[in-house]
Amino acid sequence: MYKEFFGLRANPFNVNPDPRYLFLTRHTEEALACLTYGIQSRKGFVLLTGEVGTGKTTLINKLMEWLRLQQVATAFIFNSRMDVPQLLDFMMADFGIPCDTKSKSQILQQLYNWLLDRYRAGETAVLVIDEAQNLSDEVLEEIRMLTNLETFTEKLLQIVLVGQPELEQRLKQPQLRQLRQRLTLRAKTHPLNLEETRSYINQRLRIAGSNGDPIFEPDATVAIYRYALGIPRVINLLCEHCLVSAFVDQSKTVSVTVVDSVARDFDLADGNAAAAMTAPAPASSEKFDLVEALRTLATLADRLRQSEPQDLPKERKI
Question: pTM (2 decimals)?
Fold first, then answer.
């Protein structure tokens, strides 16, 4: 509802991992270069890890976009809570390989023949597995075995494992040492620093259609960085709710006071960015009331359709 008010064409702080909004820092560029090099060089296994909310899935979506432009066959597994038969079924379906058997040996033979045909045609195939820290040891071992699909010189299937730092800890377990030894390249995502946070917010506003007029006051940006600890997902959350609050107040800029208020609503006043991953639980009637906020926004939307901007209330508060 606030897009027209701030002169935007789209929602700049949607939490969906839209590759259009990928913000390239030095660390992000290094990670993307590592992934593309590993795939192009047929290294077999590449590992991407990073804390929750630091942009792993957005980075992977950008990689997938690039792979499709290169007409590379891809399979993307986003639900890691599966057993071996489910993994194989999903992979074959996403690669578009016809398979009418449930026999594991026949499935693997069909996969091998398909990969070999692609290799002979000078093509490759990439399997990307997100949230890999949730995979069972049995499934991780099966994934390792998939790298045995190879010629004398090169791997036929390129695998990208994506997960939280817990994945690295799991790979240190003795029973997974064979998989760990096959990880030829490792990439990481990192939180943003203050300057990157400022550029990140401005870039998303620009992509969403902003004309360049400042929406977030300088002190507000510093406060957002302080509360979010540089985690892009939390930055998006704070910025989104700050824009909503400013819209309700009919303010064209977001002040540090608004940021502080939103941060309190999400229990971020103590610098605990992880708290923003769950909905806030108000401790008193002064806390943010989502239902009441939606009602207020609906009322304002009706007035926007029926009245001139100057007719809107100037002091309406949540």
Answer: 0.80
185-188/45-49 β-pairing: parallel
pLDDT tens figures, 145-194 = 998 888 888 899 999 999 999 999 999 999 999 999 989 899 999 999 99
What per-residue confidence (pLDDT) applies to 147? 86
Q: In the Cβ-directed half-sphere of 314, how many Cα atoms lie within 13 Å?
A: 2
Per the CB < 8 A criterion, the answer to whether 137 and 180 are in contact is: no
User: Rounded to an integer, what distance in angstroms lies between the CA atom of residue 245 and that of residue 247?
Assistant: 5
Four-point Cα dihedral 74, 80, 86, 91, nearest 10: 0
SS3 call for 34: helix
Q: Where are the domains of the chain?
A: 24-188, 192-311
User: Which residue, among 142, 25, 43, has the nearest Cα to 85 in the 3D structure?
Assistant: 142
Could you say which DSSP state residue 307 is in? S
Separation of alpha carbons 186 and 97, rounded Å:
29
Give domain 24-188's CATH number out of 3.20.20.70, 3.30.70.100, 3.40.50.300, 3.40.50.1820.
3.40.50.300
What token pair was written down for 226? 């302080």
How does pLDDT run across 74-115, given as a tens digit for each residue? 999 988 889 999 999 999 999 999 888 889 999 999 999 999
